[in-house]
Specification:
The structure holds two protein chains of two kinds. By secondary structure, chain A is of the alpha/beta class. Chain A is built from ten helices and ten strands. Helix content of chain A is 37%, strand content 27%. Classes of the chains: A alpha/beta, B mainly alpha.
């Protein structure tokens, strides 16, 4: 199994407060890896380390090494790293302009200016998220007018416009209803043919349904990682058992 | 129980007093000034044995507009830039605190000192002479912290996830600032600029030594001195009874301009952004 991402002893700090403690884990290529764990265990911080978004924040920093392929991410420019590792956030956050402009925002930054090429990117990625049929007639409409589920799919489509190698999702369904969540889960299963996906989720059933591999985190540590079936079916660590059986979390 | 009622009464009394004073001032000035306002007053230059007794205040209106607009341009650009720097670029809280301290110091400088500084540095040492530009530089320093504080506040209110989304797409801070942040707060910036302009328009001390004069025509360039409403008002009152009517008229016009601008800024700031 080819690993696309490898973390070695990554620790993260907000000021003096430590949020991650020597986390080591790896992510297989073109599979879905779910990160589960109780609130405040460092799941979101971990994602922010991987795409180095953390170093954009005031008084936050991380130590340790993260390898994308063979390359240490510290040797990759922050903007370039984030282009290669996309991220979607918890609450849908479309930019407050039209659907089309949301889709062309990042390509334009990367120097794509021909209308034809921009159209191609927008249509292709909207189709990937199944949104195209729903919004094709109203690409000029404000993205804020879409429903919550549509907004979140738009954000995923937007993240794909720069052709990332990895797509990270930080609890993408927590603000959505069951039906919208189901659509997104189906879409992710489709997307993993092209992209590597890391999803942080609170919803254990969701992790069980869609993830090939699951990582359990607790209090800034990775307690256990492995194939989803094993983690859920036969957890080795006491904390994992407790969490999965609902003792805490 | 009694304490709560007393507190409530105290709050109401305070509000009533403030409101009463404000309304009284407005009615008083508008009543006294309304009589001297006509087309001639608005569109002619001041005349008379005691200057301003006859004629109008047109050059002062135009002068005030020139001072204000120049000050808003000179002060607004660094104010917005500073706000962007503090919110988006500066990563160390300690450095941010230093900048904030400096801004507070600037806000605390008495405006007459700013006028004196502009006079000795710009008018004398750099020898640009008494002119609108020199006065506006002093006014700009005065309103800069005021505008900065408002713009910074609105920048901080932008949803963090929206900015993070832009960074997460691999877009630089610069691109994010110009394509997301500044357009998002455009209305707040414009309303901050208008309010800063009102603040500048009412200020007299920075003009006294630097570019405000008792009599001139409508200014043609920024390198000549000009009349200004608050300074004209000051002179009319200083001259005593003969020109007092015109003084109320001038005050009326000034308050009307500032009131309308304020209303405009409030209205504009409240409109929902980006449909």
């Amino acid at each position: 199994m080819e690993m696309i991402l490898r973390l070695e002893k990554v620790s993260a700090y907000y000021g003096k407060k430590s949020a991650l403690k020597e986390v080591s884990m790896s992510v297989p290529k073109k599979q879905i890896t779910a990160i589960i764990g109780p609130s405040g265990c460092g799941k979101s911080t971990l994602l922010r380390c991987i795409n180095s978004l953390l170093s954009e924040e005031k008084d936050a920093s991380y130590t340790g090494d993260i390898f994308l392929g063979e390359k240490n991410t510290r040797d990759i420019e922050g903007d370039e790293l984030r282009r290669r590792i996309g991220m979607v956030f918890q609450t849908p956050s479309p930019f407050p302009f039209s659907v089309y402009k949301n889709m062309t925002y990042a390509p334009k930054y990367n120097g794509v200016h021909s209308k034809k090429e921009l159209d191609r990117i927008a249509v292709e990625k909207l189709k990937m998220t199944g949104l195209f049929d729903e919004v094709s007639a109203e690409l000029d409409k404000s993205a804020l007018k879409l429903s919550g589920g549509q907004q979140q799919r738009l954000c995923i489509a937007r993240a794909l416009t720069v052709d990332p190698e990895i797509l990270m999702l930080d609890e993408p369904c927590s603000a959505l209803d069951i039906k919208s969540s189901a659509i997104i889960e189906k879409m992710l299963a489709e997307l993993k043919k092209t992209y590597t996906i890391i999803i942080v989720t609170h919803n254990l059933a969701q992790a069980k349904r869609i993830a090939d591999r699951t990582v359990f985190m607790y209090d800034g540590h990775v307690i256990e990682e492995g194939p989803t079936d094993e983690i859920f079916g036969n957890p080795k660590k006491e904390e994992t058992k407790d969490f999965l059986s609902g003792v805490f979390g | 129980m009694l304490k709560a009622r007393l507190t409530k009464m105290w709050a109401y009394a305070g509000m009533g007093l403030v409101l009463g004073i404000v309304i009284f001032i407005f009615i008083y000035i508008f009543a006294k000034g309304a009589g001297s306002i006509d087309l001639e007053f608005l569109l002619e230059s001041p005349r008379g044995a005691v200057l301003g007794m006859e004629g109008g205040i047109f050059p002062a209106i135009m002068g005030s507009l020139a001072f204000t607009l120049t000050a808003v341009v000179l002060g607004g650009i660094p104010a917005v830039a500073t706000a962007v720097y503090i919110v988006f670029i500066c990563k160390r809280s300690s450095f941010e605190n230093i900048i904030r301290g400096v801004l507070q110091c600037i806000a605390g400088i008495p405006s007459i000192v700013l006028g004196l500084f502009a006079y000795s540095f710009l008018v004398r040492d750099l020898a640009i002479g008494r002119c609108i530009l020199a006065s506006s530089a002093a006014l700009a320093v005065m309103i800069m912290p005021f505008i900065e504080a408002r713009v910074e506040k609105s920048l901080r209110e932008i949803p963090q996830q929206m900015l993070s989304s832009s960074y997460a797409l691999g877009c630089s801070r610069g691109y994010t600032v110009f394509h997301i942040a500044l357009p998002y707060v455009r209305q707040e910036i414009i309303s901050a600029l208008i309010l800063g302009g009102c603040f500048a328009m009412g200020a007299t001390p920075p003009l006294i030594f630097t570019g405000g004069v008792a009599f001139s025509g409508v200014p043609q360039t920024l390198l000549e001195p000009a009349m200004a409403l608050p300074l004209h008002l000051y002179l009319l009152v200083a001259q005593g009874t003969p020109s007092l009517g015109a003084a109320y008229g001038t005050a009326f016009v000034m308050m009307a301009v500032i009131l309308i601008s304020n209303a405009l800024a409030t209205f504009y700031g409240r409109r929902r952004r980006w449909k």
